[in-house]
Amino acid sequence: MAKAEASLKDTDAETPSGKRPLIVEAATRVFLDLGYGAASMDAIAAEARVSKQTVYSHFGAKEALFEAIIKEKCDQLLAPVFEAFRPGQDQAKALNEVARRFLSVILAPPSTALFRVIIAESVRFPELANAFYRTGPQTAVDNLAGYLKELNKAGVIATNDPVASARQFFALLRGDLYIRRLLDLAPEPTAEEVATVAGEAVSAFLAIHAPD
Question: pLDDT tens for residues 142-161?
Fold first, then answer.
């Protein structure tokens, strides 16, 4: 017991900036294990090996902590997706790369696990679903829409509504394989399987948006 108390004090004595990542990672584990409703700040503090007061001083409430996790995870996951947009790159190749990276992200176990928690809690806690949509899907759509607008100006694709086209692009990617992954009916796909699904989706998208 004395050893555990000493460890807790040592962790709690870290600099404020050092505690936040510990709390976020610990809270992520607790939320994924217990769900949002059953998770408590006491359990999160114990998992992070800090005091409950420390958790509250950083986030104020469980809702704020969960929203912070959603934002950080979405930022981490989406950042590499849109690094595929490089000046001078072949547009079809860029879209294929975005599709491949996006699928790799949303089909990975951490993403499917987090999404299951959000879906399970969305009726009781709609604000969490809103936070996820704003920082995840909506951000992805906005980023892609800006790129599609430039492709439309260049005559590479034809679209009167880049935002709607961006939504269609991601809808083509979230097909049967994605549903089976969410239901845990399929294992995490191989890189080759991801590339095949991405290529098919991009081909369909470009055919739909082919200039006259």
Answer: 989 998 998 899 888 999 99
The CATH number linked to 25 is 1.10.10
> How many CA atoms does the CB half-sphere of 140 hold within 13 Å?
26
26 and 83, same domain (yes or no): no
Quickly count: other Cβ atoms within 10 Å of residue 123's Cβ. Answer: 8
Identify the CA nearest to 42 among candidates 68, 65, 69, 67. 65
Q: What DSSP line would sit under 50-112, residue for residue?
A: S-HHHHHHHHSSHHHHHHHHHHHHHHHHHTTTGGG--TT--HHHHHHHHHHHHHHHHTSHHHH
Is residue 49 located within the same domain as residue 76?
A: no
Q: What is the pLDDT of residue 88?
A: 65
List, in sequence order, the alpha helices (H) in the chain: 2-12, 16-34, 41-48, 52-59, 62-78, 91-106, 109-121, 126-135, 137-153, 162-173, 176-182, 191-208
8 Å CB contact between 105 and 78: yes
Q: Which of 57, 29, 30, 32 is nearest to 43 (CA)?
A: 30
pTM of this structure = 0.79
Q: Residue 35's CB: how many other CB atoms inside 10 A?
A: 13
